[in-house]
Amino acid sequence: MHVEKRELVIIGAGPAGMTAAIYGRRAGLDVLVLEKGIPGGQINTTDEIENWPGVLMATGPELGEAFRKHAEKFNTEFRSASVERLELREGTKVVVTDQGEIEAEAILLATGASFRKLGCPGEAELTGKGVSYCAVCDGAFFEDEVVAVIGGGNTAVEEAVYLTQFASKVYIIHRRDEFRADRAAIDHALSNPKIEPIYNSVVESIEGDGLVEKLILKNVKSGETSDLDVAGVFVFVGTVPNDDSFKGFVKTTKGGWIDTNLRMETSVEGVFAAGDVREKFLRQVVTAAGDGAVAAMSAYGYISQQQHLRHKLLEPQEVFALFYSSIDEKHAHLTGEVENWMEGKDARIVLIDAYKNAGVAQKMGVSELPALLHLRKGSEVARKKCQSLEDVTAQIG
Questions:
Q1: In this structure, is residue 363 part of a structural domain?
Q2: pLDDT, tens only, 82-138
Q3: Which pLDDT tens digit goes with each residue over 344-353?
Q4: Based on the domain organization, do 226 and 248 belong to the same domain?
Q5: Mean of the pLDDT values across residues 35-53?
Q6: Distance separating alpha carbons of residues 392 and 395, to the nearest angstrom
Q7: In this structure, are 82 and 9 located in the same domain?
Q8: What's 6's DSSP letter?
Q9: Residue 49 located in a structural domain
């Protein structure tokens, strides 16, 4: 069975994934972006974005389309597919989709996050019948109606303002006694006469006969419950990672967010993560884009290293490789002697700078330098720590 092989497979076409595609293609990588929805990700549900540097205001769909056009300029391949799972098969990374399998030199997880559900009675039953998680998608259905927004962060207060274009009144229900949003966003919302905050309250249940009719609220301080008549409820109480395709494949934190280092590397070699799906302090379009750039260049370094490893060490019939450190003066002197010795001889020694190619050295299990490895068809025959030219030539014979 033919299996498609690609250098960098990016899962997700939000700001992180598309930025990574731009950087990856500019670095010369073969890039495939897999996306099961509209490119842009979660920003497509945002009416106004006013904190993307250089753009005073844009809608989420406008910014998402701009990202895609930018990536397409560098001939990025986009494919609509649903990723079912990731597998490691004898060291080979495989992306299993509903359209077939893809072997990837490197994988970038940029699947983003989704809005968290309240989990209260009536929410699931009335989703799409007055319960919504997208003001941009559904706000127009509530012309001259009373609606409620649940949450206290930036998304909640900003979407409440957006809903005032349609609704006659918008309640913002928050479990604490003050909002967590930016001060500018809070001031903008509370200055709107259509918006009324309800603090220290949670939704006990959402009720209605076929459509949302009212909320049962509980005051968290007094314990008292009350009814609030509304025609719609918009839920913005945080996010959860979109991890269905890789759950259990890479190390995650308590909330399920992918644990990475500063190079966006995950616990699995050659698998990277970027954007809202990773553990981070701030989840915004600009931070996702930054993650994507870092991840792409880390993937480029990894792929280049792997190709170098195969070409120089694993594919030849027989090879001697001297691992050294370019920042060690004695090592540099030794490599100079080795190069002079090789002139006019058939014997060839591959010089590997373990300082610049730490990943290659780690892959080959080289920790003590300088070291000479004798490899045959990629398998180690012998290794010797070498301090002088005589040590090196004695091993070659």
A1: yes
A2: 999 999 998 899 999 999 999 999 999 999 998 899 999 999 999 989 999 988 888
A3: 887 789 999 9
A4: no
A5: 82
A6: 6
A7: yes
A8: E
A9: yes
Integer angstrom CA distances of residue 259 from 47, 247, 251, 366, 377: 30, 12, 6, 27, 36
Enter the pTM of the model: 0.78
The tokens describing 201, both together, are 């309250």
Query: CATH code at 331?
Result: 3.40.30.10
Alpha-carbon distance of 23 to 185, in angstroms, equals 33
Structural domain for 350, as ranges: 316-396
Q: What is the pLDDT of residue 363?
A: 84
Is 378 inside any structural domain? yes
Within the chain, how many helices (H) and strands (E) appear?
9, 21
Contact (Cβ atoms closer than 8 angstroms) between residue 147 and residue 167: yes
Catalytic residue numbers, as ranges: 134, 137-138
CATH number at residue 215: 3.50.50.60
pLDDT at 346: 79
Spatial separation of the C-alpha atoms in residues 352 and 221, rounded to whole Å: 66
How many domains does the chain divide into? Answer: 3
CA distance 11 to 13: 7
> Do 246 and 108 fall within a single domain?
yes
Alpha carbon distance 289, 317 (integer Å): 43
Tell me how far apart the alpha carbons of residues 23 and 113 are, in angstroms, rounded to a whole number: 22
Paired strand residues for 350: 321
Q: Flag whether 386 is in a domain.
A: yes
